[in-house]
Specification:
seven-stranded mixed beta sheet, single chain, Heat Shock Protein 90, globular, alpha+beta, 5 helices
Length: about 150
């Protein structure tokens, strides 16, 4: 059921759930541009989406530099925009364009996974009337943009 959801609560839940992995990889979490907004959504979906994106950022972090995950929020009119960016290994968008949110789609053969997380995140965003997009560069990282309806 669509209802008011606190982005702060969903984000804090994600960080708490993944705290052990975040500490193990010595990940810097940049929340300097995070502001609390209430969105129209489904709380378990928002938490699932945040979890999938942060989990992927951890899984595909670069072993050469300290991993950084940055979350930003902004509001424009009736929409709240959340970006979750990382400085991980990135995705070659020449091959991923148009396929990245497909079921069972994977782009890094040397890692575990079923190719379900981003498909699920897209399905959940659409069920809430939102959108998800990605920009990524191989060797530089990925930025996921989530567009929610504001309360």
């Amino acid at each position: 059921m669509i209802e008011p959801v606190s982005l702060k609560h969903a984000w804090e839940h994600t960080l708490q759930t993944l705290e052990k992995d975040i500490k193990a990889k010595n990940v810097a979490i940049d929340q300097s541009d995070f502001q609390e907004y209430m969105i129209r959504g489904i709380a378990p979906y928002v938490m699932s989406i945040f979890h999938n994106l942060v989990h992927n950022a951890l899984k595909y972090s670069d072993n050469i530099r300290q991993p950084v995950i940055k979350i930003t929020t902004s509001k424009t009119g009736e929409e709240v925009v959340v970006t979750i960016a990382d400085n991980g290994i990135g995705i070659d968008m020449r091959y991923a364009e148009g396929k990245i949110f497909n079921l069972y789609q994977r782009f890094h053969a040397n890692s575990e996974g079923k190719g379900f997380g981003l498909f699920l995140s897209k399905t959940q965003m659409e069920a809430m009337g939102g959108q998800i997009q990605v920009v990524s560069e191989l060797g530089k990282g990925s930025t996921f943009t989530l567009v929610f309806r504001s309360v």
